[in-house]
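Summary of Year 1 activities. Much of the first year was spent building the evaluation harness for sequence design. The harness presents a backbone, in tokenized form, and records the residue chosen at every position. We chose the following record to illustrate the format because it has been used consistently in internal testing since the harness was completed.
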């Protein structure tokens, strides 16, 4: 179980690093748009991400 969690964390870091590496200007623009969002909008995006992740984990299992 620990190896799986470590692998998932490593993969997340790879995906998180792709956008700033491949398109720093686009990443900066996306970050500026995110800064203009309300707390509710950011929470909704977080909730949607959690739900999608849980669905993918359920399908993978």
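For this record, the design step produced the sequence shown next.
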């Amino acid at each position: 179980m620990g190896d799986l969690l470590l692998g998932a964390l490593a993969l997340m870091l790879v995906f998180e690093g792709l956008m700033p590496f491949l398109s720093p200007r686009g990443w900066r623009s996306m970050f500026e748009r995110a800064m203009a969002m309300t707390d509710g909008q950011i929470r909704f995006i977080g909730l949607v991400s959690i739900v999608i992740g849980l669905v993918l984990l359920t399908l993978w299992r």
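The chain has one domain: 2-60. Quantitative recovery figures across the full test set are reported in Table 2.
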